[in-house]
């Protein structure tokens, strides 16, 4: 299994895909994110989150009702 470090913006965009808040026509990374989500779901890759990114997510959790934090805990 491969492991990837991800940035705060990647996690937020992935969460927006789950919630339908990203328009596939306007986000140039949409298909890449979809493919990445499939790899995560299939357990082909593992997402690694450094403490700095986790803190950024926690600080902004009020913006998305902590959905990104919940996503991190599940995966």
Shape: globular
Main pleated-sheet profile = 2 strands, parallel
Strand content: 5-15%
Order of helices and strands: EHHEHH
- Total count of helical runs of at least 4 residues: 4
State the strand order across the main sheet.
1-2
Poorly predicted segments: none
Distance between the termini: 14 Å
CA-based gyration radius? 12 Å
Total number of beta strands = 2
Q: Which class best fits the helix and strand makeup? A: mainly alpha
Percentage of residues in helical conformation? 40-55%
Could you explain how this protein is built, in words?
The chain is mostly helical and 75 residues long. It contains four helices and two strands, in the order βααβαα. It has helices spanning 8-19, 30-41, 51-59, 67-74; strands at 2-5, 45-48. It has a two-stranded parallel ribbon. Helix 1 (8-19) crosses helix 2 (30-41). The longest helix is centred in the N-terminal third of the chain and has 12 residues, at 8-19. It is globular. The mean pLDDT is 87.
Précis, in short:
This protein has helices at residues 8-19, 30-41, 51-59, 67-74; strands at residues 2-5, 45-48.
Labels describing this entry:
75 residues, two-stranded parallel sheet, globular
């Amino acid at each position: 299994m491969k492991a990837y470090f991800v940035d705060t913006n990647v996690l937020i965009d992935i969460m927006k895909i789950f919630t339908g808040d990203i328009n596939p026509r306007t986000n140039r990374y949409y298909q890449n994110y979809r493919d990445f989500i499939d790899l995560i779901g299939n357990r082909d890759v593992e997402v690694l989150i450094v403490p700095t990114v986790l803190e950024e997510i926690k600080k902004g959790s009020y913006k998305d009702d902590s959905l990104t934090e919940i996503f991190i805990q599940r995966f």
